From TrEMBL:
Primary residence: membrane
Phylogenetic lineage: Bacteria, Pseudomonadati, Pseudomonadota, Betaproteobacteria, Burkholderiales
Protein name, as recorded: Flavohemoprotein
Membrane-spanning parts: 12-30, 42-62, 83-101, 121-138, 150-176, 182-201
EC number(s) on file: 1.14.12.17
Membrane protein topology class: Multi-pass membrane protein
Gene3D superfamilies: Nucleotide-binding domain of ferredoxin-NADP reductase (FNR) module, Translation factors
Subcellular location: Membrane
Gene that produces this protein: hmp_1
Organism: Paraburkholderia fynbosensis
Gene Ontology MF terms in the entry: 2 iron, 2 sulfur cluster binding; metal ion binding; nitric oxide dioxygenase NAD(P)H activity
């Protein structure tokens, strides 16, 4: 399995590099315009590579399951953020180098009306990119609503790519050759096609495969479980620990769906799925008002966070609402009659906010399951673990062959960072821990 994942990672990485480098090398084939100085040619190469990387961002976020599976969606989004900074850096370096060498191409004409279109599109493209990055990096400080930010992110990316291509074609230097121009214009159409795929074709598919809410359950910790049943189709099969994108009160064409882990057993034969949602913002606070019978749309399953080898001890570490994928794993293993050893370390602020605690106690009879509750704000008289889940808690509750267990972590970012550090100190190999981050952006 691991070898298969490694191979898939290697193949997709090569394809990614090919998509960026091949069009660049294609520019050097065939008839070439007379060479200019090195700095100019170098800056142009940076511009072309930056644009190719920007275009491929549409592929990274197009939710192609086969591409994202070997890494997990959170890793792909992390890469998307990092690589876009690099791409924007390359694109911005292009005019900066030309300014630094006082390139004659940057000489301003006497009248604004005489500024060539190629140059105007360059300003539009770079301006959109800079705005896009500022809004992505400082969305919270700018107090932008997620939905509004998401929409503007897509629009700005589209403007940046289209204007960048018009700049290249308008300037004409390398793209005078019709073959090369066709290649680059074709590639731009392909990038925009990726966006259409996720925003148009996928929603069309979802529209034909709706779900109906059959039950709304209030849970501990200001949390609600939605039970959803496929309507007129068989639904999809998911692996315990995976997640889907939920659209409520809107058609699947709405730009922003919300990601939630499946909390139910993956063994439900009738396609039923459950999501357990904590009130943490404007969308999630309204989930409790959902009524049975309501139509919803689900896009899934996604993610690489799922149970591992049956003979290994599985250590599930959940913080707050990070319990949902663990619950799916536990319920699934119970339904399968699987007796692998399981330890759940479940951290929360209060005892009262521990979602699923009664069911976890009941499930102990069907599984080889030990549950350790860790409260950061314990009630008086609490005799269990308190504080944070850390290396000491591991040492107190796990058999000492720490490096041989498989660890599954889901919770707030600070907790996940601390646990990953603790596991590193305990010499647990990286391949033994698996995580799902609830913050894509
Ligand atoms: C893979 C994954 C699985 C998740 N599983 C669960 C779960 O099982 N139960 C649960 O309660 N929560 C889960 N979450 C978190 C949940 O998606 C967010 O809490 C929810 O989308 C917040 O929306 P809001 O409008 O209520 O809050 P807001 O206040 O609008 O947003 C709070 C923060 O959540 C993030 N966010 C908001 N909307 C989205 C979106 N559409 N897509 C991605 N991130 C967004 C942003 O960082 C935002 O700053 C999961 C998140 C991810 C990434």
């Amino acid at each position: 399995m691991q070898y298969r994942d490694l191979m898939r990672k290697a193949i997709w990485s090569v394809i990614y590099l090919l998509f960026i480098l091949a069009p660049l090398f294609a520019l050097l084939a065939g008839n070439l315009p007379p060479a200019r100085n090195f700095a100019t040619e170098f800056s142009v190469a940076l511009g072309y590579s930056g644009l190719a990387m920007m275009g491929l961002q549409f592929g990274l976020t197009a939710r192609f399951r086969h591409v994202t599976e070997p890494w997990g969606e959170d890793v792909i989004y992390h890469f998307h953020r990092r690589i876009s900074l690099m791409a924007v850096g390359l694109v911005v370096a292009h005019p900066l180098i030309l300014i630094a060498i006082r390139s004659p191409q940057l000489a301003l004409p006497d009248s604004v009306r005489d500024i060539p279109w190629g140059a105007r599109f360059a300003v539009l493209s770079i301006g959109s990119l800079i705005l896009l990055v500022v809004m992505a990096l400082w969305r919270k400080q700018l107090k932008l609503r997620y939905e509004l930010w998401h929409l503007s992110h897509i629009v700005l990316a589209l403007i940046a790519i289209a204007a960048g291509m018009l700049h290249m074609v308008g300037w004409g230097f390398y793209l005078v050759d019709p073959l090369k121009r066709t290649l680059w214009v074709g590639m731009t159409i392909f990038w925009i096609g990726l966006l259409l795929y996720v925003r148009l074709f996928k929603p069309l598919f979802m529209l034909r495969r709706p779900y109906r809410v059959t039950e709304v359950r209030a849970e501990h910790g200001d949390t609600t479980t939605l039970v959803m049943q496929p309507e007129g189709h068989a639904g999809f099969r998911f692996k315990p620990g995976q997640f889907g994108w939920l659209t409520l009160w809107a058609s699947p064409f709405r730009i922003t769906g919300h990601p939630f882990s499946f909390s139910s057993s993956a063994e439900a034969a009738d396609g039923r799925v459950e999501m357990t949602i904590r009130n943490l913002g404007d969308f999630t606070s309204a989930v409790r008002t959902v009524t049975a019978g309501q139509r919803v749309y689900l896009d899934g399953p996604y993610g690489a966070f799922t149970i591992g080898h049956p003979t290994d001890m599985h250590v599930l570490i959940a913080g707050g609402i990070g319990i949902t994928p663990m619950m799916s794993m536990i319920r699934t293993l119970a339904d399968r009659g699987d007796r692998r050893p399981l330890v759940l370390l479940y951290g929360s602020k209060h005892w009262e906010s521990m979602t699923f605690r009664e069911e976890l106690e009941a499930l102990k009879t069907r599984l080889d399951l030990k549950v350790v509750y860790v409260l950061s704000d314990p009630p008086e008289g609490w005799s269990g673990e308190s504080g944070r889940i850390n290396a000491e808690v591991f040492r107190r509750h796990l058999p000492p062959e720490y490096a041989e267990h498989e660890y599954f972590i889901c919770g707030p970012d600070v907790m996940m960072d601390a646990i990953e550090t603790a596991l590193g100190e305990m010499k647990v190999p990286l391949a033994r821990y698996h995580s799902e981050r609830y913050s894509f952006v």
